[in-house]
Amino acid sequence: MGALERLPAPENRQDAGLLAQVNSEIPPEILALEKKASELYGRGEPQQALAVIQQVMVWVNANLPSNAPYRASSQSWIGLLLSAVGRRQEALAPREEAVKIYRELAKTNPAFQGDLAASLTNLGIGYSELGRRQEALAPIEEAVKIYRELAKTNPAYLGVLAASLTNLGVRYSEVGRRQEALAPTEEAVKIYSELAKTNPAYLNDLAMALNNMGVRYSEVGRRQEALAPTEEAVKIRRELARTNPAFLGDLAASLNNMGVRYSEVGRRQEALAPTEEALKIYRELAKTNPAFLNDLAMALNNMGVRYSEVGRRQEALAPTEEAVKIRRELARTNPAFLGDLAASLNNMGVRYSEVGRRQEALAPTEEALKIYRELAKTNPAFLNDLAMALNNMGVRYSEVGRRQEALAPTEEALKIYRELAKTNPAFLGYLAAALDTLGEVYRGVGRQQEALKVAEESITNFRRLSKVNPGGYQHLLAYSITTRGVIQQDLGQPEQARDSYEQAIAIYRPLAASNLAFQADLQRIKNNLDELNRKEGIRTGAKQVLPATNMSYLPQGDPLTPVKRAVVLLWPTFSGKNAGVGLLGTGFVVRRQGDRAWIVTALHVVRDLESNALATKVEAELFTGPLPAGVVAPRAEVLLSQGTALPASGDEPIVLEVRGLPPDIQALPLATTPAQGVLMVVGHPSKPGPWTVVSYPLLKTTDQALLLDGGLDPGASGSPVLSASRQVVGVVYDSPEVTKSRPIPQVWAFPVKALKAKMAP
């Protein structure tokens, strides 16, 4: 779901007037110690703050009765600080004692109702931190009820009511009641909006509530709606930070959330700028205030994710490694950061895998697993993280060919999620995802029937979840149904596979219409269905393959026919998570030697963007012209070597050998003069379709790329860019999304010199 806005710190002091009266009985030196602890905590030094507040407790225990208000207040402090240093189980007792004291005081003195509500809020947070999320609901709900009553007669409580409502939304989300989480979150925004109209002091609270509203909307699949509150939060905090640097950290948090939200709706290039700005702010803040070091590490992690999403995988490594370094140092002196360290180590494993450093990905993944296993022994809140780490361990083992070893951690992850989901429906989605991963592992070791069984269970779970939260789970349901289709094809069940693909397409089609992020998924499934229909048609005799040398259907008198014959439609097939036919691409013949020919395409066409692995199979479909019903175009096999050296990340032209091309197909000549004027692209964009010819004015030429004035849909990657004399001047590799910083559509192509370098002996 992305980043949840950090909630207000657990509440300690709500009734300033009452506390002033209570504090008049406390020695000044004790109050000074309390102030010092507060300052240390604010500077990011919770260990030192805890040591100081423990001195306060020594005096409290020696001098105050068991029901003293200041004792309850100090216990709240102890609970907060014990939690901050990772001693969350120990933090529970003082929090419970604070509730007990305030409850007794409030029975005879209503002035303590606010303190009781604050202590209940802290107790709910404590239960949540220990994984006791169902138990966390009651104290939070009681706190909301108390604050609501207090606010009826005293508007001063409206702010804490809004904060408590925000907490309630978080707690509902944690137990899977995501639709119910919307109402308190929206109410909190409404309250803060009214308060901020007359009191600017509430603007930052309003921004916090807006951020959380974005998260809540995202969780129920209302991702487009999540953008507006997130952008408004950034706007508010940018204005606050302009005159008060104290708000810079909050601005960075909102910018980070904006990056997540943009990514979720497929605007991944736009997600980079706010993520980079958040990182820059946190880096500056951390230079003088160590309290921001963990935020800096979080921003670095997110930067790695955003870079990875736009294919800049090599660049994703440095921020991810820096995040691990920071958190390792933090965890060395404060065990509270061990969970964050494990999260960063897990991310490092993913990033290493993406750039092909799969053996190196094992060590950080194993270390993350070891940390989570230790943490989960004493704190059930880490069981979810442990299961996630086990799941990732299975994936990493599979990637290096240790498929049998992948079974144990993947099955253990599933076992944990089954137990968690028994008492908390919020884990049903994780359970279904773990079933998908186990299915992949089973397929990898040839246990197809078992893979089909877990795929069916995953589908059942996602169907159940989609009924109550369609926006949050329909895309995952469609993914599981697609996976079932691939397995059914493996098992020789074409009719069942066809039904699965059609179901998945029906789900993805409306999703892709409103969210760019799902368009590639929809196209992938369509390609799988087309491939299934082709194979079954050929197998049953309903379709005949046109002989490669049969040229009778080629357009007569079209001067571009020789060019189109040299341009092929590439059908890549992948294994692993994205098993089946991938997104189609374009290639073209650049060299011919007897029966052997070499084609060029963009590397990403034949490489799985998630695993970095080369396709297991690629076929090159030939241009034939319009064919009658029952006849399909011939294809030639592209020769792949799984040992082919691939760049760690990024894209580049790749030259591949193909056999069996008819003799009339000849190589396209490479230009010897610079590109200029209006250029022509021949390729296979999904719209309008294969062998489309489009002309583009050349906008700009650099050493790395040609920029053409216009746009192309997916499928055109690898297309030749031709001069007026039909010589190759470039190879299409992208047509990036239109953004605020790049408001006009463009086509990007590698210059011909990059291709020539690949063809050198």
Secondary-structure blueprint:
Blueprint: H1 16-23, H2 28-42, H3 46-63, H4 69-84, H5 88-108, H6 113-129, H7 133-153, H8 158-174, H9 178-198, H10 203-219, H11 223-243, H12 248-264, H13 268-288, H14 293-309, H15 313-333, H16 338-354, H17 358-378, H18 383-399, H19 403-423, H20 428-444, H21 448-468, H22 470-490, H23 494-514, H24 519-540, E1 544-545, H25 561-566, E2 567-574, E3 580-581, E4 585-593, E5 596-602, E6 617-621, E7 631-632, E8 635-639, E9 653-659, E10 678-683, E11 692-701, E12 706-709, E13 720-722, E14 728-734, E15 746-751, H26 752-759
Parallel strand pairs: 1-7
Antiparallel strand pairs: 2-3, 2-4, 2-6, 4-5, 5-9, 6-8, 8-9, 10-11, 10-13, 11-12, 12-15, 13-14, 14-15
Count the DSSP helices. 26
> How many runs of DSSP E, i.e. beta strands?
15
**What is the percentage of strand-forming residues?**
5-15%
Structural Rg: 30 Å
The parts where pLDDT drops under 50 for at least 5 residues are 1-21
- Strand order, main sheet: write it out: 2-4-5-9-8-6
Mean of residue pLDDT? 89
Structural class: alpha+beta
Distance between the termini: 49 Å
Give the CATH level 1 class of one domain.
Answer: Mainly Beta
Fraction of helical residues:
55-70%
Shape: elongated
Query: So, CATH architecture of one domain?
Result: Beta Barrel
